[in-house]
Amino acid sequence: MGFSKNILAAAALCALVSPALAEPAKPDVNRLITSEVVQEMRQSIETDIVRISVGAQNDRLQKLPQEQIDALDAQWRAERESDDKPLIAATLSNPLSVYLTRLQGKSLGLYAEIFVMDYNGLNVGQSSITSDYWQGDEGKFQKTYDVSGDALFVDEPEWDEDNKIWRGQVSFTLTDEGKSIGAVTMEVNLTELERRVAAGA
User: Fold this and answer.
1) CA 143, 174, 85: angle at the middle one, nearest 5?
2) What confidence tens digit (pLDDT) does each residue in 1-39 have?
């Protein structure tokens, strides 16, 4: 009887502990996303290939009316479910996307996703397929490009159940010779960043 009680007690304890193991405490982004971390991000993004790519899309598309933006976004969403993906394929294969994909790879797990937006809030390049093509209705664009050339927006961390990591988006305005031309979002693997900070890396 005593043995059975011990088993039941252990099972109850596991049930209480398991959720905590599955989802560690939310990381403190104010402690992790330091000015040094942001500066490193900016240095990797404020390059000719980024400025030229964003400038070229701005020149090609100009300022679009909302109905055209919505149509492009709808096309992107539809292509995600289709075998035919002309818009997605063209975006993912351009030089900027290749650069961002390499940047993500070189980070050795620190960056979970990177995407760059033009002044319409539309994707110019990205390291992986985003859920939508237009970011202009989200904080990552509205709290950066729409604010100022030096604006920075650090979003709340989100738990990634599939990969068992905390992720957090850091977004800032892109400029060219002092003029705002777009924005970038770099999604950070906060669990990996916290590990590196603890290890003194």
Assistant:
1) 90
2) 454 444 445 544 444 444 444 578 999 999 999 999 999
Q: Which helix (H) or strand (E) holds 159?
A: strand 158-160
Instruction: Give me the residues paired with residue 40 across strands.
Output: none
79-135: pLDDT as tens digits: 999 999 999 999 999 999 999 999 999 999 999 999 999 999 999 999 999 999 999
| Distance between CA atoms of residues 151 and 166, nearest Å | 24
Range of the domain at 99: 28-199
Report how far residue 36's alpha carbon sits from residue 30's, in angstroms, rounded to the nearest whole number.
12
Identify the CATH number of the domain in which residue 44 sits.
Answer: 3.30.450.20
Which DSSP helix (H) or strand (E) runs through 154?
Answer: strand 152-154
Domains of the chain: total: 1
Task: Please indicate, yes or no, if residue 22 is contained in any of the structural domains.
Answer: no
